[in-house]
Amino acid sequence: MEFTLDEMREHLNVLETRISAACKACGRERDSVKLVWVSKFHPAEAVENAISLGAKEFGENRVQEAETKFSVKRPGIRCHVIGPVQSNKLKKAALVADCIHSIASVEAVEKLEKVCAENGKILEILFQVNAGEEETKSGLDVANAESFLQSLETREFPHIVFRGLMTIGKNTGVAEDSRECFAFLRNLQQKFLAKDGVFASFDQLSMGMTGDLEVAIEEGATMIRVGTALFGERDYSKPVNDPV
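and the corresponding structure tokens:
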């Protein structure tokens, strides 16, 4: 069931307490971690409520839903496409998103560059790594991730900004089980950030959700992705097509 505005405020306060405590515990500033509100399958009204509570970063898994809610741009409100994007949806994703978290091929980068060049847009992207090495997860294989990034070092993509890496923690229900894959992601990100060049802005780590955000923050997350804990349970039976 969707939370009311008051319920969202209460749950946001609880979440903020957790985030602040996690940051304090490892000597980080609270503003070093962005909260991405995962609004997939939640209606336009819920997004408006979130904005009224100060939300600025929203994550959508499906391009069509992102278009429905975020095609009309508003100052300060950013749309993150966080789910895998099929090749035939890359153009639409490029146009609606401020940042895409799930890139895992050179072909996708090339197509996004072409679309953005044609539309005079600068797009931020993160490369998804399957750091937990789970068959059900998308992203670059751990064994190939570094060589993949190295292959991009000498390329030029004037309309694409490489911002960092994204991963999904292990689906075990135990937050600590994700520490190793989060640490792997941080080490990989730091290695390429140090190279400068096309990786000069490679300072973002999108990792951590409701269940493992403390571990993710300890391991350097700069974005955490939270949905149900902020919006309430999703109703998957209803299409979300209310324009925002």
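(Above: one complete record from the training split.) Strands lie at 34-38, 57-60, 78-81, 99-103, 123-128, 160-166, 204-206, 223-226.
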